[in-house]
Amino acid sequence: MSIFKREARKPRHKIQLGVWLTLDGGFAKRPCTILDLSTSGARLAVSNSGKLGNKLALALTKDVGKLTPCRLVWQRGDEIGVEFVQAS
């Protein structure tokens, strides 16, 4: 029995939605695809993901009118997991 409680994972919904991942406060943009989505985060496919850093945001359009702030949780090849965070 573990003494640590693991928070229940939120239900995820499979989706194929093209969005923009913004880096460095919105100065760099990369096209990506949301592969699955929950209320707390998402799994994304990002071509040539390289080193992304922790502070990211998602935008539905390239002009990034409305950003959804998130942080990088994990990265495996060209797939990443992000957690949505409150804007500061």
TrEMBL record:
Location of the PilZ domain: 10-86
A GO molecular-function descriptor: cyclic-di-GMP binding
Pfam families named among the record's database cross-references: PilZ
InterPro entries tied to this protein: PilZ_domain
Protein name (record): PilZ domain-containing protein
Species: Afipia carboxidovorans (strain ATCC 49405 / DSM 1227 / KCTC 32145 / OM5) (Oligotropha carboxidovorans)
